[in-house]
Design goal:
binds zinc ion; 6-stranded mixed beta sheet; 8 strands; mainly beta; elongated
Length: about 160
């Protein structure tokens, strides 16, 4: 999605409202988007730089880390970025800024990168997910299997013998 920055690029204090949808259907990050990402936010010319504050919302398909089932969940994150014109980079480079050329800015990478860093480290279909049986692989959320998965502890073996 290319944003046209010309209405604000040269006027300090000028604001640009953003309300766009970006389709990330064919991304190579392994993220499964169930619908386009809605980006809502605002870009403000702070004199020398543009400040972007935005939120991105969509729905994603995840694979549960415990039971390996797929599940779908709404996703939202918000982020801020500082944008500067490429031709100011030589004079004073800001390591945190994103540089752009001309008066147009492709925000796809900015949005996708912010989504990636906001993804949960662990994806669980539910906090109570029981996962898979380590012996037979049965999904324990669906049905309890008959396996004995108690971890044997030699101290208890001694006790077992004692009571025999
Ligand atoms: Zn699960
Ligand atoms: Zn089992």
């Amino acid at each position: 999605m290319i944003l046209d920055l010309s209405p604000i690029a040269n006027i300090d204090g000028k604001k640009l409202d953003i309300d766009v949808e970006i389709d990330f259907d064919n991304n190579d990050m392994g993220i499964c988007f169930l619908k386009p990402v809605r980006v809502l936010g605002r870009m403000v010319n702070m004199g020398g730089s543009l400040e972007l504050s935005a939120s991105a919302s969509t729905a994603l398909r995840y694979t549960c880390d415990r039971c390996l089932e797929c599940f779908e969940r709404e996703f939202e994150c918000s982020f801020d970025e500082v944008l500067k014109k490429e031709d100011t980079r030589l004079e004073d480079e800001n390591p945190d800024a994103i540089y752009f050329q001309g008066n147009s800015l492709d925000i796809d990478d900015i949005v996708l990168n912010n989504i990636i860093v906001s993804l949960p480290l662990k994806s669980l279909c539910s906090e109570e997910c029981k996962g898979l049986c380590p012996k037979c692989g049965q999904n324990l959320n669906l049905e309890q299997c008959k396996c004995d998965t108690r971890v044997s502890d030699p101290r208890f073996d001694v006790l077992d013998k004692f009571f025999e």
